[in-house]
UniProtKB/TrEMBL annotation:
SUPFAM superfamilies per record: NAD(P)-binding Rossmann-fold domains (SSF51735)
Keywords from the UniProt entry: Oxidoreductase
First-tier enzyme category under EC: oxidoreductase
Name of this chain's protein: SDR family NAD(P)-dependent oxidoreductase
Pfam families (UniProt xref): adh_short_C2 (PF13561)
Length: 258
């Protein structure tokens, strides 16, 4: 019989990449509030301030500088999370960049950078984390995708393809790892006015207009928040979702239905 205590994550350890700010910081916060120990990883060292703020609030948060596109950094990040709290239960591959470029604008360097962070970063983190999870008797891996993974977005070509790759990674690993009680799922955010998204819009000179247009296009009358995405992540991380693996959960207020 399920009960609400199955949402609790006390005693679990989570690692969230790209958690210095934006959606990743909101995911880390929800995991902490449900009792998990959380390691925040990011190339942005402001993650240390974020972790310190939560430590002062009595939560067990740590920060490690890590570039997910570099295998040595990823190995160090996973080892740190395992050692800090005695093992890793939850891995959230959230770090990502979303620069705009269509086919004609996408050169090889640009393509490689987007793939290295958004797709290779997740594969490296899974590869580093899975042996420990197998030893521990299970785990939950959550990849942060995008609506663009399945709908396509020619104006952000490399980004959309990197997120499509995350769906394929999710399904392949879920099939291979179910026997070890490791669940692998994907959460697709709709449109969140995160730090990164606001900076991207501002650099294109379209912040005010685009945000207004975005809200008008939202069937439920508002954009999504990082907390909306985090709610889906903590559900999937919890024992409540113990039989859910290989799935995609879209949190977009219905925008993808249009
Ligand atoms: P954000 O830019 O606000 O935050 C992303 C974080 O990732 C930053 O702290 C950044 O420093 C970090 N990061 C970037 N490259 C890194 C690297 N190589 N190694 C480690 N950390 C790195 O962006 P966000 O909107 O919070 O996006 C989080 C995730 O959600 C991304 O994967 C993004 O693609 C996805 N997403 C966002 C939206 C949206 O509307 N904001 C929509 C769909 C999907």
């Amino acid at each position: 019989m399920n009960d609400a205590s199955m949402f609790q994550l006390a005693g679990k350890t989570a690692l969230v990449t790209g958690a210095a700010k934006g959606i990743g910081a909101d995911i880390a916060e929800q995991l902490l509030r449900l009792g998990a120990n959380v390691v925040l990883a990011d190339v942005d060292d402001r993650g240390e301030e974020t972790a310190e703020r939560w430590r002062q609030g009595g939560y067990t948060a740590r920060f490690i500088h890590s570039d997910v596109s570099k295998s040595a950094d990823v190995a160090r990040m996973v080892a740190y999370a395992e050692e800090a709290f005695g093992g890793l239960d939850i891995l959230v591959n959230n770090a990502g960049i979303f620069p705009r470029a269509d086919l004609s604008e996408t050169d090889e360097t640009f393509w490689n950078r987007v793939m290295d962070i958004n797709l290779k970063g997740a594969y490296l983190a899974c590869q580093a984390a899975v042996p420990g999870m197998i030893q521990r008797g299970g785990g939950s891996i959550i990849n942060i995708g995008s609506l663009h993974a399945t709908k396509g977005a020619p104006e952000t070509l490399a980004y959309a393809i990197s997120k499509g790759g995350l769906v394929t990674l999710t399904r392949n690993l879920a099939g291979a790892l179910a026997v070890h009680k490791i669940r692998v799922n994907c959460v697709h955010p709709g449109w969140v006015a995160s730090d990164g998204e606001l900076a991207r819009l501002a650099s294109n000179g379209e912040d005010g207009d685009s945000l207004e247009q975005a809200v008008r296009r939202m069937p439920m009358g508002r954009m999504q928040t990082g907390a909306d995405i985090a709610a889906a992540v903590v559900f999937i991380a919890s024992a409540m979702a113990g039989q859910i693996t290989g799935q995609q959960l879209t949190v977009d207020g219905g925008i993808g239905l249009r």
